[in-house]
Structure prediction request, 186 residues.
Amino acid sequence: MTTLGREYRTNAIILKRRNIGEADRVVTIFSKEYGKMKVIAKGIRRIGSRRSPHVEVFSHSILMLHRGKTWDLVTEATPLDAFSFLRIHLPRVTSAYYLCELVDVLLPDRQEHRDVYTLLLSALQTLNGTTEIDPVVANEQYALELLRLLGYLAHDRSLPASRIDPYIEQIIEKRLRTPKFLMQLA
Prediction:
């Protein structure tokens, strides 16, 4: 993390994105130092944008950000890991979406969670590995560990796999979107 007045730099994992206007995108990122935050990537959808591939969902990138009034702006993006193997296997992509959705719904904005950042990065690296892994089992382990790290579940307690998502939905008071799709693939 480097801070130079209104400009600062951070390593971040892209959790989700939403198009706005003709060429811009609101991107939800998760960084080790600043936690979860929404930033705007102006011009990212233009054909000649060099930043575009580095600001895709699940990407692990170094972002140069400029503090704005409402949202900070992405001025530069340098890739650290695009998780390319993960992206070519639909069950792994769905699993990665689930992991990112959990971080997005369970964490408040702009609160540092270094342990959760490390857990998410490790889970994405595991999904990206070439070894055989069951994405459903990986999701269960990740969800339980995330709940423990955030204090929603005692460290000596566990939940059966069928109760994890309902428990999370009870906490966030809304339905998760990715589990249904993951179950259809299993």
